[in-house]
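Hello again, I could really use a second opinion on something today. I've been staring at a protein lately and its backbone has me curious. You're getting the sequence in one-letter code plus the fold written as tokens. I'd be grateful if you could look everything over and explain what you see. No rush at all, and the record is pasted right below:
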Amino acid sequence: MLVSAKNAVVSLGVSCQTAHQIRRHHRLIATALNDQDLKWQSSFFDNLITPPSAVVSLFSSGDISEVRAEEIGMYQRVVWSNHGLFFWHEQ
């Protein structure tokens, strides 16, 4: 995500490509927002596969501060089963 005191551009999915494009086009975004203070900062969502329903589920749960081991499963990749979020680049 890009963050400054005035703005934040945050990747909420649908894939890691979103975060990649934000990071890649940092200068263009900063110019468009007239905010040269924007800095890249890693975000929880950067490497997730997050269908819209998964984002809604996560934010509706009220607590995104921790993932418990019993909520993690394997389905082609590591998945947070309660919400359907795939940690695509995690091993």
Remarks:
- The radius of gyration is 15 Å.
- The mean pLDDT is 82.
- The beta strands are 2-3, 8-9, 39-40, 48-49, 72-75, 77-80, 85-87.
- Residues 16 and 47 are 5 Å apart (CA to CA).
